[in-house]
User: Fold this.
Amino acid sequence: MSSTVVVALVLLPVALALVSGLLLLLFRPLSTPLAAAIERMRFRRRLLRVARAEAHLQAGQTEAALREFEAAFCLMVVGADARLPDQIARHHAGLLSRLLAVADDVPQQRVRLLALAKVDRLLNRRNDMQRAYLQLRGRPLRDGRRLQLGRELRLNGSETRAAVRELIADLQVITTRKVAYQ
Assistant:
């Protein structure tokens, strides 16, 4: 009986090491689809914000619509779904177009939206960085270039968020003037 216990004690760590190794091998292939699903879900929430903004515009609630448009920008770092960055770029182009249309609805106003150009420039830069980041997704998580691009994307996200706030503030001033003129 004691030899059985000794063999069991020797085989137990080997079995645990094998099971742990298999779990680690399966983790990455299983985590990528899960991460992609989470990224798509976060993007869908931004699309719902646009729909709410449009509903507010139809109801004549420009202020609420602008808040929803601001929240509709999707500035997450995409690491799993390779198709998502292009969808996000088209989404942002549509948002900027819609915000420009809101500004154009102001009669007899010459609108200079420098913030719009700034947001557009930051989003273009972000799109380029996001594509480069996805090309590096096969590299280890501790890869220097991948880490650097991740930091740059997060910094760009902060700068873009600030520029979007500035753009929305400019639009709020313009639409407030519209109400004052009427």
User: Anything to note?
Assistant: The radius of gyration is 24 Å. Helices lie at 2-58, 62-71, 84-104, 114-135, 144-181. The longest helix spans residues 2-58. The chain is about 80% helix and 0% strand.
